[in-house]
Design a protein that fits this description.
single chain; 298 residues; alpha+beta; 2 domains; 4-stranded antiparallel β-sheet; 8 strands; globular
Amino acid sequence: MDPITHALSGAVIQQLGFKRKAALFVLIFSAIAPDLDYITRFWGTDVFLRYHRGITHGVLALFVFPAIMAFLFRKKGGFFYYYSISFLAYCVHLLMDLTNQYGTRILSPLDWNQYSLDLTFIIDPYITIGLLLAIILGRMNKQRATVIAICTVILFAGYIGGRAYLQKEVKQFLKTKMDANIYKVYPLPNDFLRWWFITRSGNETDTGFVDLFTKRVCTQDKYHMNNNNQAILESRKNRVVQNFLYFARYPYAEVKREHNRTIVTWKELSYSFMAGERFFTKVVMDKNGKVMESYFKF
């Protein structure tokens, strides 16, 4: 989720009845604190790609950061009180991020693998608008602010549960239409019944759309994995590509030769439904295989 949505979640949590001095600030700051790793973007988008949702989104940070907040605000209402609300807001951030497809290293530093439920897109306006409405309604009717916040939490849980049900139905339907070893389905922005799919059998990977409403599976692209190409192997030594591969779960590389240059483009297939060149890395090499340029774009 985006930082605005996380900040709104902290404000909604405050409406549950946390009224002590500085509670609102602690909740909002704790709700956005995991995204302090945005600072890595100063070292390049590929560095950000590697370290975003890393250590600050892990179980260690979940216990350490609330302790810091509780120590700083202990004189305003007690260490345990501020530890509890900071832990709650921080935990909600991690769980919200876990629902979408970007991936979160939630068990770091014990386990550096990415985990995701693939239920929501990176930015979900329905969740953002719902949280914003809860805050507005709570400010307009302060006597029922707690009830409004509780209803919002229930609706959020129902929304996530509904998307989990749809995801399950999509995957089951996909299995009746395509024969493969691996089936993955991902949410599309602002859509419920259409999902993006990736299937893999051996070296063959298919991508496309599954539409539950029309009961159709539309294959968009077919890829043959050929990562033994020498240019592809050389590109793997590049720092930008290494950072990309640390993030990517379904990477695909293609080679194009132009005049005296060789261009290797790495794509993340779980985002290949997006228009234009998104979530890709390019490495441009001269005729001798020396890297002339390399970059990553969201």
